[in-house]
Design a protein that fits this description.
This protein is of the alpha+beta class and 298 residues long. It contains six helices and 15 strands. It has three domains: 106 residues, Pnp Oxidase, Chain A (Roll), CATH 2.30.110.50; 104 residues, Baseplate protein-like domains (Phage tail protein beta-alpha-beta fold, 3-Layer(bab) Sandwich), CATH 3.55.50; 44 residues, no CATH class. This is Type VI secretion protein.
Length: 298
């Protein structure tokens, strides 16, 4: 079908027919249809952050960048099996790019809510509380004090079945809430990751939400929906999502780990030391997965 202008062709590519779909809150429906995601780049990991960069095209050059800030966003990627793989986050950065004829470019950077909570630095003392209690206190304060976080962030405690001992004294000293919680989780052996929240019931629109999942046993996590992902060379065509590059890396690691903490009741220090490797010269080796098949929309 011939098109008179690029804008005419753009209007027919609604979010429902795109391979990379963008979903914004219902209050920003016009903005949602004005953006076409051309490319997605990013990463997410267990016990790490979730960050994605979206390169978007738009027939409008007058979009106000301030309207994007802290906006809940969901990106839906159509998989090789016809399903949808969702990524949710908040807009942390937005950049206006070049203008090429009828189309303008915008670059959005999405991060999870936990990463954005690194903006608040505090010093605080918690008495007679466990690491789980401190997490409950801080996440409740975030949700009660910020309507945006209350609407787009949830916490899943279902995989954190273990009851943790109460500590007499826990201190947050001149560090952000996010760094403080990560430090507590690592010390107690609590893992975390970010996943999209459960979809709303049919007929009820809701803003994109994501869930902070806490767990203490990685074997309880659900299996990746992608299953076994094949490896193929970059230039070879294929009909499945695949790993295109595989690279091994080595890095130096400590041979032992020493922990020091203060016993508030006994008024004395507690120390422990754990050997990480039997041989100090053993180095850590981990393969790096680079990217899946190209997600650029043509």
């Amino acid at each position: 079908m011939p098109y008179r202008t690029l804008s005419d062709a753009f209007a027919l590519w609604t979010q429902q027919v795109r391979a990379i779909r963008l979903r914004l809150p219902q209050s920003h429906a016009a903005l949602q249809e004005a953006l076409l995601v051309q490319q997605v780049m990013g990463s997410e990991s267990l016990c790490g952050a979730c960050e994605y960069e979206l390169l978007c095209l738009s027939p409008r050059e007058d979009l106000v960048l301030k309207d994007f800030m802290a906006l809940p966003v969901e990106v839906q990627l159509v998989t090789d099996q016809g399903g949808l793989r969702s990524v949710c986050g908040l807009v942390a950065e937005v950049h206006a790019g070049q203008i090429d004829g009828d189309l303008s470019t915008y670059r959005l950077v999405l991060r999870d809510a936990l990463s954005l909570l690194g903006q608040r630095i505090n010093t605080r003392v918690f008495l007679h509380a466990s690491e789980a209690d401190v997490t409950q206190i801080l996440t409740s304060e975030w949700r009660q004090g910020n309507p945006l976080l209350a609407s787009c962030l949830e916490v899943d405690w279902s995989l954190l079945a273990e009851r943790y001992p109460v500590r007499e004294f826990i201190m947050q000293h001149n560090e952000s809430d996010a760094d403080f919680l990560r430090r507590l989780w690592k010390r107690r052996g609590i893992g975390w990751h970010i996943r999209p929240a459960e979809p709303p019931t049919p007929g009820h629109a809701a803003c994109p939400r994501h869930t902070l999942v806490l767990f203490n046993d990685g074997m309880q996590l659900p299996r990746n929906a992608a299953g076994a992902v094949p490896y193929r060379r970059d230039h070879a065509p294929g009909t499945q999502d695949a790993i295109l590059r595989w690279q091994a890396t080595r890095r130096l690691c400590a041979g032992s780990l020493s922990r020091h903490t203060w016993d508030h009741v006994q008024d004395a220090p507690l120390r422990s030391q754990v050997a990480l490797f039997r041989r100090s010269r053993v180095l850590h080796q981990s393969p790096t997965l680079f990217r899946y098949s190209n997600m650029k929309e043509s």
